Each structure stands twice: as structure tokens, then as C-alpha cells.
UniProtKB/TrEMBL annotation:
Assembly and interaction partners: Homodimer.
Cofactor(s) needed for function: pyridoxal 5'-phosphate
Gene that this sequence comes from: hemL
Domain of life: Bacteria
Protein name: Glutamate-1-semialdehyde 2,1-aminomutase
EC class of the enzyme, as a word: isomerase
GO BP annotations listed: protoporphyrinogen IX biosynthetic process
Length: 427
């Protein structure tokens, strides 16, 4: 049987650089042929050959209620027949902003955009405009989208290609970006001792997901809140991935930290292009046209995307949604760990809410260096062996994985049984 994925990949490469519209999809770091998805439903995707997979990518965390959830599809259909985009305000945008602010109390004002990159790029500009300072701090291994100031030792994509900073980004721009080691309290204190009052803001993945899942330690996040408070720097929690994913209220609700700004995406669009930035009113009031920090977007608050997001936010607030999601994800992490251990394979897996990390390493990574020391070849072998047995994880050792509400205990058990066979082969 001809491999449609291969045929499509060759054709795609004739018109789209590397045949994909986002680098990680090209399988560059794991090798092999990307699967071209023909359709998705619940916990499954089907590729161009009609092959079905249990999907643990979920559009990188977006698909928390399951692919093509009938209520979300219906909400999109209903919105679409009323018009796809107006370039004018709608009531639904107020409703979703109020809903997000109810779920994330640190958000006093919020603006919708179309991607996580836009959200973080604007949050950085806001921090600079609000403080009048230029320096920003990010952490090694964290990825916040592809705006110039943040493509410095980015984690997702670039780290996967072992390219710690992007070509085309002017050095005189990135000189304002201080990159610190993740979870390194001493380095953080030192940076603020040295530059404190020059720092406009700090942006953090509060639970990293772009160097695989790496939890920020309580001491690290508490110190970060203290030094930003003391120095008048804006603390930005980038919850594009963790928001509504690790808990309903995101990582900030688990940390008990109130950031000044929060960026969100993925889940809030329910699969459609929708993201947001929000936080303290006094900071958000600096955004155009109220204040001097410019930001705009033709499709910002798009009515069809908002409809998908609103329905998704309704579903995830139903009773026991997170209890079930966390239990399923924990079942997967614990089951895979037990399967590897019984096969004598060095492997562990961690989970927080509906997000998990798989590590071919003796223990959970706490730093970028820990993650870089993990056995990437072991991951590649596991990734392809599982894919050949119709289980799809993210095609990179540096990406977190995602469980949806559609992943039943039986599907998790099925995944673990398949992994037992794979680990046995890997010995
Ligand atoms: P987007 O511009 O891709 O919507 O969001 C950028 C972004 C910002 N902040 C965090 C914490 C993120 O995880 C992301 C995007 N995440 C990647 C997954 N590692 C998106 C997948 C991709 O790049 O294709």
C-alpha cells in the first residue's frame, strides 16, 4: 500500500518550507515521516493512510475536551452561520473575558489575540511600556512563542534543533534579554542584585512544557515573586500551555502566586486560533488606545474562535472534570513508569493535571541541563515503536504530552499494554 503520508510530505515540501507550518511537526528531531492528519475525534486521530492512533499531542494541549467534541463543533457551526469575522466588538468577547477573569482572579483586565506568540510579545511590550525599562528576563529551556525578544535559548522547536537562538534576530535587541537557568534561585537573586531596577519584566513558564515537563520549585517561584515585587519588575506567568491544563486556575492556582500579567492560549480557543493576555488593571490600562503601548489584530476576538473557547470553558468547569483528567494522566505516567521498570529500562514519567512528561532518565529533570542530559535516543526509539503500534506522542524529547477528557481508563490501559511490549523490545 502506498504511504500517503510520504506522498503528501514530498508534495508539501515543494511549496511549504520543510513541508510544515510549524517546525516541530516535521519530525526533524525524531526522524521519519510526519503523519498527515485526515481527521480527529475524541482521543483519536487518523492519518492520510486511514491509520488510527491514540493521540497524546492533542494539538499541543489545545484539545483538552477531546477532538471534535460535538458541543464545541455545534457552537462553531452556530457562530459561523452568523458571520465569520466582523472587525468590530461583539458581546461574546465580553462574556469570554468575564469568564476567564472569574476563573483566573489575577486577571482584572484582558485582551484577546490570535496566538500565544502575540500574547507574550504584547505582555513583554506592556511590561516595558509600563515600567519604562528595557531589560527582560526569561529562563533557559522555556519557549514563549517566536517574537524576537524571546527567541533566545528558546525551548520548543529551537532547542529540538539544538539551535539555542534564532537567526534573523538583531543582537542589539537580544542584549536586553537576560537568560537565567530555570529553578536557579541564586542566579535569579544575583541578576536582580545586578540589574533589578533595570528589569521591566520576567516571563516564566510556571511549569515548563517546552523542555519537556519541568516543575518550577516553590522556592524558585516565591523568590521570583519577591524580587520582582521589590524591584518593580512585572511578573508574567506564561500559561499558554499550563492555563486551564494543569488545573482549572492554571499553575498560578497551584503555586498560590499572583502574577502581574498572565498569558493564555491553547485551551481557551478550544482548537481555534484564540489567545489572551491579562492582569493588573493599572498595567493593562497602558495598552492602546487607553495608553501608549500599541497592540492590535484583525482577527482578535474572532467570533467563531470565541464560540469554541466559550463552550470549552463551559465543559471544563463541569463537576469532576479535573479530578478525572488528573487521574487519567497519573494512571498513564505511573503505568508507563512501571512498565519500563519491569523491563529494566531507565525511564520515569511525571504528571500535573492533564499534562505529562516522559523522561529516559533516572529521575525527573529540575533544570534545562538535566533535560539535556536525558537519553534522547531512547526517546526516539520509544516514540517510533509506539507510533508503529498506533500510539502518537509529540515528535520531540523536549515536548510535554497531553491527555484529554476523551481518554478513558481503558484507552490508558491499552497504551500501557502497548508500552510494555515496546519496552521489552528496547532491552
Ligand atoms: P503559539 O504562538 O504557538 O500559539 O504559542 C506560543 C507559546 C507560548 N508560550 C508557551 C508556554 C507555549 O508552549 C507556546 C507554544 N507551544 C508549542 C508547543 N511546545 C506550540 C507547538 C508549535 O510550536 O508548533
Amino acid at each position: 500500500m502506498s504511504n500517503q503520508n510520504e506522498t503528501l510530505f514530498e508534495r508539501a515540501k515543494q511549496i511549504i518550507p520543510a513541508g510544515v507550518n510549524s517546525p516541530v511537526r516535521a519530525f526533524g528531531s525524531v526522524g521519519g515521516i510526519p503523519r498527515f492528519i485526515a481527521k480527529a475525534q475524541g482521543a483519536h486521530v487518523w492519518d492520510a493512510n486511514g491509520t488510527q492512533y491514540i493521540d497524546y499531542v492533542g494539538s499541543w494541549g489545545t484539545g483538552i475536551v477531546g477532538h471534535a467534541h460535538p458541543e464545541v463543533v455545534e457552537a462553531v457551526r452556530e457562530a459561523a452561520v452568523g458571520g465569520l469575522s466582523f472587525g468590530a466588538p461583539t458581546e461574546a468577547e465580553i462574556v469570554i473575558a468575564e469568564e476567564i477573569a472569574k476563573i483566573v482572579p489575577s486577571v482584572e483586565r484582558l485582551r484577546l489575540v490570535s496566538s500565544g506568540t502575540e500574547a507574550t510579545m504584547t505582555a513583554i511590550r506592556l511590561a516595558r511600556g509600563y515600567t519604562g525599562r528595557d531589560k527582560i528576563v526569561k529562563f533557559e529551556g522555556c519557549y514563549h512563542g517566536h517574537s524576537d525578544s524571546l527567541l533566545v535559548k528558546a525551548g520548543s522547536g529551537l532547542l529540538t534543533f539544538g539551535n539555542p537562538s534564532s537567526a534573523g534576530v538583531p543582537a542589539d535587541l537580544t542584549q536586553h534579554t537576560i537568560v537565567l537557568p530555570y529553578n536557579d534561585v541564586a542566579a535569579l537573586k544575583q541578576a536582580f542584585d545586578e540589574f533589578g531596577t533595570q528589569i521591566a519584566g520576567v516571563i516564566l513558564e510556571p511549569i515548563a512544557g517546552n523542555m519537556n515537563l519541568v516543575r518550577a520549585t516553590p522556592e524558585f517561584v516565591q523568590t521570583l515573586r519577591q524580587v520582582t515585587e521589590q524591584n518593580g519588575a512585572v511578573l508574567i506567568y506564561d500559561e499558554v500551555m499550563t492555563g486551564f491544563r494543569v488545573a482549572l486556575g492554571g499553575a498560578q492556582s497551584l503555586h498560590g502566586i499572583t502574577p502581574d500579567l498572565t498569558t493564555m492560549g491553547k485551551v481557551i480557543g478550544g482548537g481555534m486560533p484564540l489567545a489572551a493576555f491579562g492582569g493588573k488593571k493599572e498595567i493593562m490600562d497602558c495598552i492602546s488606545p487607553l495608553g501608549g503601548v500599541y497592540q492590535a489584530g484583525t482577527l482578535s476576538g474572532n467570533p467563531v474562535a470565541v464560540a469554541a473557547g466559550l463552550k470549552t470553558l463551559e465543559i471544563i468547569q463541569r463537576p469532576n472534570f479535573y479530578e478525572n483528567l488528573s487521574a487519567r494522566t497519573q494512571q498513564l505516567a505511573q503505568g508507563l513508569t512501571a512498565a519500563a521498570q519491569s523491563a529494566g529500562i531507565e525511564f520515569c514519567a511525571d504528571s500535573v493535571g492533564g499534562m505529562f512528561g516522559l523522561y529516559f532518565a533516572p529521575q525527573f529533570p529540575q533544570t534545562y541541563a538535566d533535560m539535556m542530559a536525558s537519553n534522547v535516543d531512547g526517546f526516539k526509539q520509544f516514540f517510533h515503536a509506539m507510533l508503529d503500534k498506533n500510539v502518537a506522542f509529540g515528535p520531540s524529547a523536549y515536548e510535554a504530552g497531553f491527555v484529554s477528557a476523551a481518554h478513558t481508563p481503558e484507552l490508558i490501559d491499552e497504551t500501557i499494554e502497548i508500552a510494555k511490549q515496546v519496552f521489552a523490545q528496547m532491552k
